[in-house]
Amino acid sequence: MLQTIRRFFQKRSVLEVETPLLSNAGGTDPHLDFFTTGFHWPPSNRTLYLQTSPEFAMKRLLAAGSGSIFQICKAFRNSEYGRFHNPEFTLLEWYRVGYDLNRLMDEVADLFIVLFKDSGFLDPPQRIAYQDLFKRETGLNPLVFSFEKYNAYAENSGFSEAESLCGHDHALWLDFIFSHRIQPRLGLNSLAMVYGYPACFSSLARLNRDNALITDRVELFLNGVELGNGYYELADAKEQERRFDNEIALRKQKQYPDVNKDIRLLSALAAGLPDCSGIAIGLDRVLMVLSNSPKIDDVLSFSIHKA
User: What are the boundaries of each domain within the chain?
Assistant: First the structure.
C-alpha cells in the first residue's frame, strides 16, 4: 500500500517531505486532545506537542515555495482508542498547489482506484453534497440550527441522550446525528466523497464563494468508515487567527487544557500561502478496508495495549 501511494505521487511529480513530530504549538481544535512532553535544556524547560497532523508544518513549506507536496507519517491523538482509533496512527497528507476542491476530489478518486484495483469490490467513487445527504436521510436542514427539531428527531430515533451530550451546540448535533444515522450507510462498496460541510465546521477551510453557510471541505467514507478530511485551504491569516481565538475561547469555556495558537503558521499565511487544496487520510483505516479487517488493532503491528 505504501509503495503504491509513493509511486502514485512520484508519477505526478509531487514531492515527498518530512516534518517534525514535535512542535512548539498544538492545534486549537476543541474536539482534539493532545499529547505533550517536556523539552529539558537547562536552564530552560519547554512544553512540546506531538502532532495530531503535519498540516501546519506542511503549510509553512508551501508558503516557503515547496510546490505540491505529500507526506506519510505518524500522528497522535490523546484520549482516542476503539474499533477505528489508536492514539498513534499513520497518516497520508498531501497538498496540491493550484487545485480547488473539485480537482482535489478528482485526484482522491484516482488514488483510490489505484489502491483498490485488485480488490474486486470497489465501484466508481461518488460525490454527495452534505446538505442534500443530511436532508434526504433526516428531513432536517443542517445549515440552520433548530434545537427543537434536532432534539425531536433524536428522541424519535431512540437517542434520548443526545440533548445532554449536544446541548445547544450546532456542530455537536450535526456530528452526533451524522455519525449515528448517516455514516454507517455511506460508501457501501464505493468511495463516498461528502463535500460542502456547514460553516460551523470551518476551522481550516475556506467559506464557499457562492454560499457562506457552507465550507469547501470534503470527507471520505468507505463501507461506513471515515477515511479522510480535506479542504480548499484557508489562506487569510487574520481570518485563521480569528478562528483560532474562537476555538481557544471554546476550550476555556469547556475547561479543556490550555493551548497556544501556532504563531509560525499565522506568519506563513501572512507571508503568502499559495492557492491550494489538501487532504489527510488515515492509512490504518484504508488498510482495514483493503484487508476486510473489523478493527484497527488487526492491521497494527502493536496497538497501544501491546506497544
Answer: 2-299
